[in-house]
Amino acid sequence: MNDQDKKRLFVLDTNVLMHDPTSIFRFQEHDIFLPMVVLEELDKGKKGMSEVARNVRQVSRFLDELMSGASKQEIDAGLPLPTPSNGKSVEPMVPGRLYFQTTTLANNLPTSLPGNTPDNNILSTALTLQQAHPELDVVLISKDINLRIKAAVVGIPAEDYYNDQVLDDVDLLYSGEAELSSDFWESHSKDLDSWQEEGRTFYRIKGSDTQEWYPNQCLFLDDETNFEAIVRRRDGDDAIIEMATDYRSQNHAVWGIRARNREQNFAINMLMDPEVDFVSLLGTAGTGKTLLALAAGLTQTLDLNIYREIIMTRVTVPVGEDIGFLPGTEEEKMTPWMGALMDNLEVLTQTEGGEWGRAATDDLLRSRIRIHSLNFMRGRTFLKKYIILDEAQNLTSKQMKTLITRAGPGTKIVCLGNVAQIDTPYLTETTSGLTYVVDRFKDWNHSGHITLLRGERSRLADYASDTL
Length: 468
Prior knowledge:
Rossmann fold; six-stranded mixed sheet; alpha/beta; 15 helices; 468 residues; 2 domains; 32% helix; 18 strands
């Protein structure tokens, strides 16, 4: 029997269960082994209102359901795991089994790993299983990179938990725009229809290349024409595209802000479109994500009365040491985390009229902008609100779902973030909630996405980002 024919036995680390409570159901026909130290760590982590504590309690409920009514002999023989049906397999899959550590296992760790830490305990368990069951391919699954390194050193195959990975590589993430070929007009001139409605220009395009387009995808020609359009509808080989509004000109400035590059222009087009309920903007620091989202929100809230107010929120993950408890109301506690909001409001409130004029404008804007913590979003419903979620790359896919499902009628959600700047443990570029929603929403007619490429802060910031 070669290694590929061996049945696999996965030893799960505690952090996998804390990260995804449903992970015990994600290994298809393979078996799972839970060391006793993992159950002890779950018991220690069950208290509190954090996302991790909630996940631990959910794991405990799953395990309790699986063990319900099972005898000691049945537990020793392994509990059959239900396999979620994906509708693809013709034959029913043989379910894997869940094994618990029911006896004390010998310590087979090398003397170079002294001590009785939980990590070493898990390694010792995996080594004992490997020696006791040579017919099985024993693999340790952990989100802890250091434990995976130690496992490799002592000869245990170790892998990350990949089931929640949206993409194999973040470079494959949908960018939101596509460049048209230089002969685009010549190759589509025969079957081309064009018309105008309420000052907007539309084209009906036919051809096989339209099958690769997504709703609200941004199309452009990189030539002297600077043609920019947005896909409005796609049906088979037919697609209707609309000429993008040029927000670079002063006539189309949004709250005094003009687009400085093509991606910013596409972003404002989507932010100002009431038919687009969900917009995601990716980009590094200084690309204008927060400024554009705020300017579009203020225009549609104060000038056009499409939304009642702007709600701004973000994940409170400190970059340095935590500064401890903060006094005041929810809004006052969140204010130190909202430096980006305050900085951008300064740019947007450069009004004439001296100090009094600026103070009056600040009071008006702050009366229509609410700052909320993500901790209090559960159970709420937002009606006709313009919600800006900053630093969205630090959310898990489950947290992202919790937030987006708060949206009531007439609400627009704008997610901002940079997947290269994740501050949350156990989240990566390919497992971030922001990556998740960008990938899952790209086929929906009422969502839009664009990746901002150019920083527009200052020549100093541009030089620093290039050379440092």
